Task: inverse folding
């Protein structure tokens, strides 16, 4: 079923919307949640919560890219759940991702205008990247995939993935500075 | 406080880049990939079996200590409160057992015990949808437009009303107790969770839908009933515009009829729409129900009244009840120890039943299965919790009309603390109730 047809089902309050979402994007959401949580039960729960959230938010929302819409919900839910579960102890696997990006620590009290500026900055940066570098970067920091998994999917050595990530992070840091976003 | 700008930026990435980088693992599997995955799953399953069995052997030989990873989540008085509709947590009593019926010679419906070291607890979050007059009107119109012709009458007009129930929640309703047009009592209701259409035949007046009498012959066995109900089932499916593949027959008895059973409920539903459907007395998903009440004498085989209800949930079952905890399962042998000690729950509370219940020796029980009991969460009105219990069945007697009566009692399948103190108090409460019920009334 096409995305717009699934969204139409949500708008009609037709519960087959959930079944169709699960059929088309269940695995997609599960992978996102599992990459953060590394626990089958927690990931499944997160995916179920995603369906509920989608049911509660569509309408009024009418997402253009349903996969990205669901993916964002899943990722946020998984990160929140991760924070909750690991409030007092860090999972070394996820900590590793945070450590890689530790160049960018800033005050949390950000202005909403800063957030708009940051959104523009990150998306203009991604637009200017070569497609392969962009997808590797997003895979690592948005989908939180392991370096080995990225290397396997793109059929490149792990060392190359690490090198792309390292160079892209540096470029990103410079780009933010150039855009006037102070770290 | 510091936060990671890169991780924050990722939350602001445009949808197109997210879609572009979707991992291959999230895309539909090819047949070859599925085959490879199945191979690894089989290997992993074999390895897991070896590890689990190996651990049991080592534990039984006392070569390694039993893993202590159990943190009790429940108290005995808390579970008693759950069985009493989430009532007070002050050690409220429950009956020792309840009674169920099955046709003689047929096993009672017992849900199997899953072969797992872990068991799931479910929580239902009752996020409320706003009332929707349009969908309610469409739902009512749609059903009436098919029900009226089936009854041979004109489609009645109706008015949608909104009311608040005694606990302050709003609901929409329409219908009439004695509808001159339709000739039956009917009511439609919508609340935050579901909408229901019910029509009822009272006082032994026949109700016929396109030549099929709406009636259940409760003297039939379950098997005979399934067969006999096919034409009526298909008629009702047509009227409500639904189709369900599973059927459940539930016989209850409160001692008010001479038929052994005094209420019989036939439910059409889809069991696979929620894991708890298998264990709950009423399905959590959409269902169609025919309920027959019997209060006549043995010479009068017509039911007192017959109610048909179609229940349609506004929020799908799998969103209303989700797994909230995965806990280690209490083993059957441990549950049997608790049963022998009398640490059991009897589902509901009724002072009269409690006082009148004969003592039953459940140690030589006939059947055991798993079931779930649910009620409002102890700490929240808007959350329900469904907790697994072992259900022990003991055969009591065969009744005159071909049914067999069983007593059922429940032992939690999750770890619980406070059995001793709770049940010590229970004995005193039960004794007090029995004494009270045996005290002769002062009135003549």
Result:
């Amino acid at each position: 079923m096409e995305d717009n047809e699934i969204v139409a089902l949500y708008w009609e309050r037709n519960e087959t919307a959930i079944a169709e979402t699960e059929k088309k994007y269940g695995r997609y959401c599960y992978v996102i949640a599992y990459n953060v949580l590394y626990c089958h039960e927690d990931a499944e729960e997160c995916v179920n919560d995603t369906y509920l959230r989608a049911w509660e938010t569509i309408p009024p929302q009418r997402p253009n890219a349903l996969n990205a819409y669901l993916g964002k919900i899943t990722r946020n839910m998984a990160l929140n759940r991760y924070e909750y579960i690991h409030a007092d102890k860090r999972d070394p696997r996820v900590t590793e991702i945070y450590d890689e990006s530790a160049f960018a620590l800033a005050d949390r009290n950000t202005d909403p205008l800063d957030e708009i500026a940051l959104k523009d900055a990150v998306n203009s940066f991604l637009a200017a990247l070569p497609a392969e570098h962009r997808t590797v970067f997003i895979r690592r920091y948005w989908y939180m995939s392991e370096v080995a998994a990225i290397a396997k999917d793109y059929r490149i050595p792990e060392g190359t993935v690490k090198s792309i990530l390292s160079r892209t992070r540096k470029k990103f840091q410079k780009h933010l500075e150039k855009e006037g976003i102070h770290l | 406080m510091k936060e990671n700008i890169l991780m924050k930026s990722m939350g602001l990435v445009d949808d197109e880049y997210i879609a572009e980088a979707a991992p291959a693992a999230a895309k539909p599997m090819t047949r070859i990939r599925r085959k490879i995955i199945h191979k690894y799953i089989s290997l992993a399953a074999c390895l897991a079996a070896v590890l689990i069995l190996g651990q049991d052997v080592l534990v039984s030989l006392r070569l390694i200590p039993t893993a202590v990873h159990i943190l009790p989540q429940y108290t005995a008085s808390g579970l008693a409160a759950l069985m009493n509709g989430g009532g007070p947590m002050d050690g409220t009593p429950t009956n020792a057992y309840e009674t169920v019926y099955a046709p003689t010679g047929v096993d009672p419906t017992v849900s199997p015990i899953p072969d797992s070291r872990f068991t799931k607890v479910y929580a239902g979050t009752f996020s409320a949808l706003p009332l929707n007059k349009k969908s309610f009107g469409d739902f009512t119109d749609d059903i009436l437009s098919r029900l009226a012709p089936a009854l041979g009458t004109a489609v009645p007009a109706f008015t949608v009303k909104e009311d608040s129930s005694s606990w302050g929640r709003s609901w929409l309703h329409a219908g009439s107790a004695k509808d001159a047009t339709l000739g039956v009592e009917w009511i439609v209701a919508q609340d935050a969770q579901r909408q229901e259409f019910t029509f009822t035949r009272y006082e032994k007046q026949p109700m016929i839908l396109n030549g099929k009498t709406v009636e259940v012959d409760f003297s039939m066995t379950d098997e005979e009933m399934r067969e006999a109900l096919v034409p009526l089932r298909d008629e009702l499916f047509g009227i409500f515009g639904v189709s369900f593949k599973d059927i459940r027959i539930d016989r209850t008895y409160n001692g008010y009829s001479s038929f052994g059973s005094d209420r019989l409920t036939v439910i059409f539903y889809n069991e696979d729409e929620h894991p708890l459907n298998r264990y709950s007395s009423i399905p959590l998903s959409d269902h169609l129900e025919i309920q027959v009440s019997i209060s006549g004498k043995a010479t009068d085989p017509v039911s007192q009244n017959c109610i048909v209800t179609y229940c349609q949930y506004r929020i799908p079952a799998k969103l209303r009840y989700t797994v909230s905890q995965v806990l280690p399962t209490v083993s059957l042998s441990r549950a049997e120890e608790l049963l022998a000690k009398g640490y059991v729950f009897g589902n509901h509370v009724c002072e009269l039943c409690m006082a009148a219940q004969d003592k039953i020796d459940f140690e030589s029980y006939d059947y055991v299965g798993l079931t779930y009991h649910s009620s409002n969460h102890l700490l929240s009105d808007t959350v329900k919790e469904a907790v697994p219990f072992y259900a022990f069945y003991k055969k009591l007697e065969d009744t005159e009309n071909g049914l067999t009566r069983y007593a059922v009692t429940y032992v939690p399948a999750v770890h619980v603390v406070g059995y001793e103190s709770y049940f010590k108090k229970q004995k005193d409460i039960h004794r007090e109730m029995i004494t009270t019920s045996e005290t002769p009334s002062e009135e003549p």
